[in-house]
Amino acid sequence: MEKIKVLVVFGTRPEAVKMAPIVKQLKGNKEIDCRVCVTAQHRQMLDQVLDIFKITPDYDLNIFKHGQSLTEITSRSIEGLEEVIKEYKPDVLLVQGDTTTVFAGALAGFYHKVKIGHVEAGLRSHDMYSPYPEEANRKLTGVITDFHFAPTEDSRRNLLNEGYPDEKIFITGNTAIDALLQVVSEDYVFENELLNSLDYENKKIILMTAHRRENIGKPMEDIFNAINDVVNKNSDVEVIFPIHLNPKVREIGNRIFGGNQRIHLMEPLDYEAMANMQAKSYLIVTDSGGLQEEAPTLGKPVLVVRRETERPEGIKAGTAKLIGVEYENVYNEIDLLLNNKEEYHSMANAVNPYGDGHAAERIVDIIVKSFKQELKINN
């Protein structure tokens, strides 16, 4: 049997993190020829992850431009990928998650009749415009996918409810857990000296992130004002806020948090530092999807400042709580976890629903077995 040619496509930091364990497994499999193509939809933060996991792309489309529109990202990705696909002629094209690169990558593969594998398939918020454009990217990608690698039973059920055949859906766990377990270390030393100097034993350190388009404006102002007031009330609390590069997020963050000495605004942390910061934190407040999956592995409660989430498994398991974006809710829920030990421990000790760290192995095994089966049928 000739080697199975697998093209792995990603363009942002979250995709790179979750694809890194798969790339490692593919490269280590003698039955597979694997090549990596990055669109570089994001540039700086993507390169940090490539360096951490020692991934050298075979193809780099380098499409990033300041102020780029979704149309520009989509069109430049498809045009660049067309040349890559024509040259490499892959048997399978793998995409991960819900970015514009994911949809463009899958569409480019479909146009050339390449089988599509969608890692982290089946996540749904059931609101096409929240998160935007991620929910649409997920659903549009699903239509042209051959291998739906669903991280959980809930994800599988979403796909079945939309009419996808059961034999094309595979529950694998989430590769975010595979990646996280590779980089977290008890003796990790941060490059940022402030993070090394924090009193993690006696202080309650909150790690927060915020970047969702739908939160920018009054929702984000309410969230930030609530956090500011919680910190002012609780003298043993400090906040680490690696602030997103979006200038609108930065304006709101600097305006509301600028005068608070116990809220530390800093440049975005690379993936390895962010993972270890989660491990050292007391709790996490976020509108990010990835942190909802990672933090439970580390026993850290997650408060999700959104109106809905496409990751309901953590909510059901009790590792995360969806608290909305209104000032009063955000203030009360954070204050509750800071001052109610029973409530805190019930979330910190809940079972992580997102996997065991072997998702990448399962995905690669499924690809190999599928092609072997196809070969038998054709012969």
UniProtKB/TrEMBL annotation:
Documented EC number(s): 5.1.3.14
Highest rank taxon of the organism: Bacteria
Keyword Isomerase assigned: yes
Family: Belongs to the UDP-N-acetylglucosamine 2-epimerase family.
Broad class of enzyme this protein falls into: isomerase
Domain annotation UDP-N-acetylglucosamine 2-epimerase: ranges: 24-367
GO molecular function, one term: UDP-N-acetylglucosamine 2-epimerase activity
Signal sequence bounds: none
UniProtKB keywords: Isomerase
Name the UniProt record assigns to this protein: UDP-N-acetylglucosamine 2-epimerase (non-hydrolyzing)
Pfam families (alphabetical): Epimerase_2
Species this chain originates from: Proteiniborus ethanoligenes
